[in-house]
Design goal:
Number of helices: 3
Distance between the termini: 39 Å
Low-confidence stretches: none
Structural class: mainly alpha
Mean pLDDT: 93
Strand content: under 5%
Largest sheet: none
Bound molecules: iron/sulfur cluster
Helix content: 40-55%
Length: about 90
């Protein structure tokens, strides 16, 4: 996945430790920075695609990203199950 967007991140000249907080208050501080970042969507997608477990990425905490991945897996599973019932093309 392309990572050119990283050079546009609002965090690029900040202390990286800000984005690896140890408590909920720290998570909120990082999320407020991310909320104003022009590449928030790409950052989140990068973290999800690469299964990055630690830190705040794309405005999402570790727990929020786990939940997003779980929802995506569930949605994919449902699509696969339902496609079994779709009529074949041309019939
Ligand atoms: S969304 Fe947050 S972690 Fe990602 S590049 Fe922007 S400021 Fe940095």
């Amino acid at each position: 996945m392309d990572s050119d967007w990283m050079s546009q991140g609002k965090c690029k000249e900040m202390d990286p430790a800000l984005f690896f907080p140890s408590d909920g208050v720290g998570v909120q501080v990082a999320q407020r920075i991310c909320a104003e970042c022009p590449v928030i969507t790409m950052c989140l997608e990068y973290a999800l695609s690469n299964r990055i477990d630690h830190g705040v990425w794309g405005g999402a905490s570790e727990r929020e990203r786990r939940r997003l991945l779980s929802h995506r897996r569930l949605a994919k599973k449902k699509r696969t199950e339902f496609s079994f019932y779709e009529p074949a093309q041309g019939h």
